[in-house]
Amino acid sequence: MERELWKQLYVVVVRLDNGWTNGFYRASEIVVVFLWAAVHDRPTSWACDARNWRIEPPSALPSQSTMSRRLRTFRVQKLLNDVEAELGGSPRHWWLQRMDSKPLPLGSYSKDPDARYGRAAKGFARGYKLHTIWGDGPLPSAWCIQPMNVGDSVAAKQLVSRLRGEGYLVGDSQYDSNPLYAAAAPEHQVVAPQKRPGRGLGHRRHHPSRLRSLELLTKPFGQALLQCRKQIERDFGCLTNFGAGLSPLPNWVRRVKRVQLWVQAKLLINAVRILSMTAPA
């Protein structure tokens, strides 16, 4: 299965590469080697060894140092983003999108200086979080990696600036935040349960979008929107529950830039898997 997923990604990566290079390897050659490592849950040094390719490897495999250097370059990053945009679908068509985060904890003895302690599910852990806004496509409309101590509403405030179109953004009570309502308005209406239900609103000023959210939730339409939020939990389950999916971060994926690259590769792998399952026979 992993080989078939990689082959599908290979076709998209090569097609979107403009062929220009400022070095010995094109951006697509760096990306396909990295994806070969990611789809097998191995470090990039493993993919740089021709003995670890069960198919005909590229004619000249880059070294580990070349991979490490080139994965940070603008052209490689742009190609990965272009592949993501190609597979993700059109967010403008989604009038309802869901917000949630997934903790990515590290081991207790990790010395990663970018990781932080924060809330993870019902407890606390040290690591990172994947923050997403997800519509009906195989990829999130917007996502980012943040240390574990960054709140969901704070990260979502950054993500809403990347959205196009307009509609509703549904989340849990962690997204009941006046700054988030203000950042999303007027194009998007955030709908989230009150963080402290049963209490009044006090004497402070509240953004009109927040007041509208609370009003919506007293009506059947608002409750129906809130029920749709559960889809993102299925999206996260789909991302993690297969052989090449997003499992706990391996011990070679440390520092926020490496975590972001690894998660992006897993999102792309999951996207081609979804597209292959939904494609007409």
Identify the notable features of this structure and list them briefly.
281 residues; alpha/beta; six-stranded mixed sheet; 11 helices; elongated
Summarize the structure.
The chain is of the alpha/beta class. The protein is 43% helix and 15% strand.
General description of the model:
α7 (178-184) links the parallel β5 and β6. The chain is built from 11 helices and 6 strands. The radius of gyration is 20 Å and the shape is elongated. The protein has helices at 2-16, 27-39, 44-47, 64-70, 74-88, 152-160, 178-184, 208-216, 220-227, 231-240, 256-278; strands spanning 96-105, 116-120, 123-134, 142-147, 167-170, 188-191. The protein is 43% helix and 15% strand. The chain has 2 domains: 2-88 and 249-278, no CATH class; 92-236, no CATH class. α2 packs across α11 and α5 (74-88) runs parallel beside α11 (256-278). The model has no long low-confidence stretch (mean pLDDT 90). The two termini are 18 Å apart. With 281 residues, the protein is α/β, with parallel strands linked by helices. Strands 1, 2, 3, 4, 5 and 6 form a 6-stranded mixed β-sheet that branches.
SSE blueprint and pairings:
Elements: H1 2-16, H2 27-39, H3 44-47, H4 64-70, H5 74-88, E1 96-105, E2 116-120, E3 123-134, E4 142-147, H6 152-160, E5 167-170, H7 178-184, E6 188-191, H8 208-216, H9 220-227, H10 231-240, H11 256-278
Parallel strand pairs: 1-5, 5-6
Antiparallel strand pairs: 1-3, 2-3, 3-4
Question: Average pLDDT value?
Answer: 90
> What's the helix count?
11
The overall strand count is 6
Give the ordered list of helices and strands: HHHHHEEEEHEHEHHHH
Determine Rg (CA atoms, Å).
20 Å
